[in-house]
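Example record for the data management plan.
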Amino acid sequence: MPELPEVEVILRGLAPRLQNRRILAVAVGEKRLRQESSPGEFGRWLPGRNILELERRGKYLLFHLEGKVILLLHLGMTGRLLLQPTPSPALPHAHLLLQLEGGLQLVFQDVRRFGQALVFPPGVAPAPLSQVGREPFSRQVTPQWLSQEARARSRAVKNFLMDGRVLAGIGNIYANEILFAARLHPATPAGDLSVEDWTRVLKETRRILKAAIAKGGTTVSDYLNSQGETGLFQLELLVYGREGEPCKTCGQPLVRMAQGGRSTFFCPRCQKEK
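Corresponding structural encoding:
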């Protein structure tokens, strides 16, 4: 699933080419996404409007259009946003296609259809954003705030980091890498961490997310940027997907365990339980 860095990379690739460009027409695929506005709503609110600004909130992309209309997209597990010249060959699994002035088209492609494409008329707040927590780079996110949010919580710190209602945009890949860098066992109860622990977690969260953005994100299976290119941060991963391989810090074989239905990778020597 694309996480914060991948969505940020897509945003940075699209924004310079889409801002102030008019949507000429909209086409909707036959099969629906997990959450999707009706073809009538797309047809009413999108054509003829300029794209004024693109914004990321957590794993969501927001297209701010003329007249205070918002198009909200979430890539789900296998979603892609591809910017192509017009005309281009039809893509399989295309669920939303925006014809843009200047001979471009933006295609939302999603094989597994877990994505979201929702349009919000003027004055209607995007409902999914009400459940999105603070951005990891926000000044409002401090070690003290994290410690307070985690106080008395028995849930594992890895699951806490992945809770988008607390911190926006951190998924399984980066939670694994953050906890390895912070030298914390992923099963440690979040409420047991000290402010000093949260200081390390926040420092490594920001460092790793910035590094992933700079490398174009992580491509494990499906992710491509808006130009159809893979990311490169997968070459920098130290624990994710490396079960049985030697830890690059101590040489101990890395271990995999299940947490909340997801695979967790860690070093049993570098990340000892408290």
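Summary line stored alongside the record: The chain has two domains: 4-131, 143-266.
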